[in-house]
Write a structure and sequence with these properties.
The chain is α/β, with parallel strands linked by helices and about 800 residues long. About 35% of the residues lie in helices and about 15% in strands.
């Protein structure tokens, strides 16, 4: 027997440690004894360590992102999580999902423990069934079937329910964990077990033995015999916590076992500053010791012993003992299937308890500051907003040396880590700063009548006039990679449009972004709206920022196509403005000018190949193959060291072709270009619609009719005739700058400047007007007269 255990890599059991442990691979009516160790089986095929996890226990994790390093984890399942809504029976689907997540983490090499409720509910269901069955039989024998409807279920005592439900609950866990080749063991404890030193040592040794053998301990208070909680015995100090419910049990167990993480699942999203459901209740993302005074606790859950106050006390006690804690919702159908794994991955789920307060504001606080600052910004006079932007433009040139020094630090740290195109985006220069300043002054000039401009006036009836006016969208979240020059551009557009702004830059540009943000806030300070533009420096992941739907009105990603796709996928309830790819085409018509073609292709592809408006696919009319014009294009591309990929049709014309393209829908972002052959302008348009990204597409031809046909039929944000794709840019369009290029068909399309950051509202001015006056027998009639709109200042 023992030789079998040794072959599995285990040490023999300590025979004195396991008097009241139930293992699910053993008959449910037995406890593990030395004589039945031979029944323990199927452990040798389970990988013990599948990922490297090691951590010295002592202090809790300071940030959510560190939770992925947690090795030993306790998951506490509250009564509301385990039981059904009718409080009679278990929520089987929810339990199965939780077991799956625990199994996944266990098989990653983590040490998982469960503290579970549910025995009372399971026993209640079982006993009710037995009582009904018994009563129905007796009444059928003595009174006939006509009195079955009058049967009453007596009030069931909780301890009896627990006694009846424990074995069934454990059998259920056994069946579920077996699906993942994982063994589980049951441990029942009471408060007295923690006050007896010998029993505490036994419990500790038992749990360590089980964890070492890759078994999941399932711990519960022994509700069949548990005595009432001792009065005033709870939380007498760091070393004492009274086990009066499963919250305190989980905390005590976590500290005793030097656990890295305690996950407490309940029926609410986490800890709120006031009772959930109240008008002003806000979910607390991170809770720090000493913050209790800022929280108003409500009533306890519909089932279970404790409420949120009990959970917080237990969580803080565990935190003091060196265990990190997260309280989250384990019942919500949209998140319960991945809530545990999301927490371990460091995602922003529930309330995270931390002893380390950040130096600056939280991102939620920054969102609120951006909201209030943006509203103040919108109330400024247009000249005041323009003055802020002019001051920022001056600072970019006046503080040029400090900006370039910070950028140099970023470039030095990025050397060897970033590809050449990204390094080029990261780099700032004197000429770039000068161009930025010019663009900002253009924005200031165009912002004079942006906010509050009247678009439409209508006389609804006598003395009842309606106006549609422009207003800011609200709070913008702009996420950008590598390009620090994006920060002042976007900030200036937000200022001009009266929007609050949250900026999340890449860590590769941290030094540059920091000084540019400081200069932006310095410019905003001249009119007391410093907080309208916020730079997010906390550890929030982009996915977490995309969930702040109550604080953010529009997300604008600036970066790689992968970044844009990830944000579009992660954003829940927040519109995303942007384009996922910049697959720009140029069609060279049979009537194209020889002199123009090579200039346009070179500029579109080689001037800045990493830009989203760079040329990626060159479409050649088939009549141009083997002509001097075609040879000039190829020679120019070779001189510029552009790697050519042949499309299927182009490859069919060649004996020895360049590498055939893997996909005609590719954004290279480098000195690479796909060349394909088309039969005519309609064939080119069809190709663009099939493989393009609706960004920017160009025709090169001297035939005006062909050009106009192309311009009218290509369904892209920007369509050009005899012009480089690189003109697709807010600065070059005279917008001053852009927050991005949108390929969306709603609200804004193409380079998005100041106009794209505005929406509208309706203003109705009346004199005691009511709708009933306009009814069939009313005294007033609708006029709906269009009124003149004030002329826009275009100077």
């Amino acid at each position: 027997m023992l030789s079998q255990v040794y072959r599995c890599g285990f040490q023999p059991f300590n025979q004195h440690l396991l008097p009241w442990v139930h293992c699910t691979t053993v008959s449910r009516s037995h406890c593990i004894q030395p004589s039945v160790i031979r029944h323990v089986r199927s452990w040798s095929n389970i990988p013990f360590i599948t990922v490297p996890l090691s951590r010295t226990h002592g202090k809790s994790f300071a940030h959510r992102g560190e939770l992925k390093h947690a090795k030993r984890i306790v998951v506490k399942l509250g009564s509301a999580v385990v039981t059904r809504g009718d409080e009679c029976g278990l929520a089987l689907g929810r339990l199965a999902s939780i077991v799956e997540q625990v199994s996944v983490l266990q098989n990653q090499g983590r040490e998982m423990m469960l503290v579970t409720s549910g025995a009372v509910a399971f026993g209640k269901q079982r006993l009710r069934h037995e009582i009904l069955l018994s009563q129905s039989v007796r009444q059928a024998l003595h009174s006939g079937q006509n009195q079955l409807k009058e049967m009453a279920i007596p009030v069931l005592e909780a301890r009896a329910c627990a006694a009846a439900g424990q074995s069934g609950l454990m059998a259920l866990y056994e069946a579920m964990f077996t699906q993942y080749s994982i063994c589980a063991a049951q441990i029942l404890v009471t408060n007295l077990d923690f006050h007896d030193e010998q029993k505490r040592r036994n419990l500790n040794g038992t749990l360590h033995e089980l964890l070492r053998m890759n078994i999941v301990p399932i711990v519960n208070t022994n509700d069949a015999v548990v005595p009432p909680a001792e009065p005033n015995s709870d939380l007498q100090g760091v070393n004492v916590i009274s086990v009066k419910d499963n919250d305190s049990l989980a905390a005590r167990l976590a500290v005793e076992m030097k656990t890295d993480l305690l996950i407490v699942l309940s029926d609410v999203e986490g800890l709120f500053d006031s009772p959930p459901g109240s008008d002003d209740a806000k979910l607390i993302d991170i809770f720090y010791p000493g913050d209790q005074q800022s929280v108003t606790f409500g009533t306890k859950s519909r089932v279970g012993m404790g409420g949120m106050e009990a959970k917080v006390k237990a969580a803080l006690w565990a935190l003091q003992g060196g265990t990190s804690v997260v309280i989250a919702n384990g019942t919500h159908p949209k998140v319960s299937g991945h809530v545990i794994t999301d927490i371990v991955e460091g995602k922003k789920v529930g309330t995270f308890f931390s002893e380390v307060k950040p130096a600056g504001p939280t991102v939620e606080q920054q969102g609120e500051m951006a909201r209030s600052g943006g509203r103040m910004l919108a109330t400024l006079e247009p000249e005041q907003r323009a003055e802020i932007i002019h001051h920022l433009a001056d600072l970019l040139t006046d503080q040029r040396d400090e900006i370039l020094l910070a950028n140099k630090k970023d470039l030095e740290e990025a050397e060897g880590r970033l590809a050449a195109p990204l390094l080029k985006r990261l780099s700032l220069s004197t000429s770039k700063l000068n161009s930025l300043a010019i663009g900002l002054r253009q924005i200031a000039a165009s912002s004079q009548d942006s906010v509050g401009r009247v678009l439409r006036r209508t006389r609804i009836a006598k003395n009842l006039e309606l106006e549609q006016v422009t207003v800011p969208i609200g709070v913008l979240l702009v996420i950008f990679e590598s390009r620090p020059d994006c920060l002042p551009q976007v900030a200036a557009l937000a200022i001009a449009s009266g929007n609050g702004l949250l900026l999340k830059g890449g860590k590769e540009a941290a030094h540059s972004n920091r000084i540019l943000h400081l200069l932006t806030q310095e410019a905003l300070s001249i009119h007391g709206v410093k907080e309208a533009v916020q730079l997010v420096n906390t550890r929030e992941e982009v996915e977490d920022l995309c969930r702040l739907d109550k604080m953010i009105d529009l997300i604008i990603p600036r970066g790689s196509s992968q970044l844009v796709r990830d944000i579009q996928k992660a954003a829940k309830g927040i519109p995303v403005m942007g384009h996922s790819e910049g697959i720009c085409h140029m069609y060279v018509d049979s009537e194209a000018s020889v002199d123009k073609v090579t200039r346009l292709v070179r500029d579109s592809k080689c001037e800045y190949p990493a830009a989203c408006n760079a040329l990626e696919t060159l479409l050649i009319h088939r009549d141009l193959l083997r002509t001097p014009l075609f040879d000039q294009i190829i020679d120019m591309l070779r001189v510029e060291q552009v790697k050519i990929h042949a499309g299927p049709k182009f490859a069919s014309y060649l004996t020895f072709s360049p590498s055939e393209v893997k996909s005609l829908r590719t954004e290279y972002g480098d000195l690479e270009l796909c060349i394909e052959v088309v039969d005519n302008v309609q064939d080119a348009i069809d190709h663009i619609h099939k493989y393009g990204s609706s960004h920017t597409d160009v025709i090169v031809t001297e035939n005006e009719n062909t050009a106009e046909f192309f311009l009218q039929h290509v369904d892209s944000a920007c369509v050009f005739w005899n012009a480089s794709t690189r003109f697709s840019d807010g600065y070059r369009f005279g917008l001053g700058a852009e927050v991005g290029i949108s390929t969306s068909r709603i609200h804004a399309r193409g380079p998005v400047g100041l106009e794209g950051l505005l929406t509208t509202k309706w203003l109705l001015r009346g004199k005691d007007h009511v709708v009933s006056d306009f009814s069939e027998h009313g005294s007033l009639k609708y006029l709906h007269e269009n009124l003149p709109v004030p002329q826009r200042n275009t100077n």
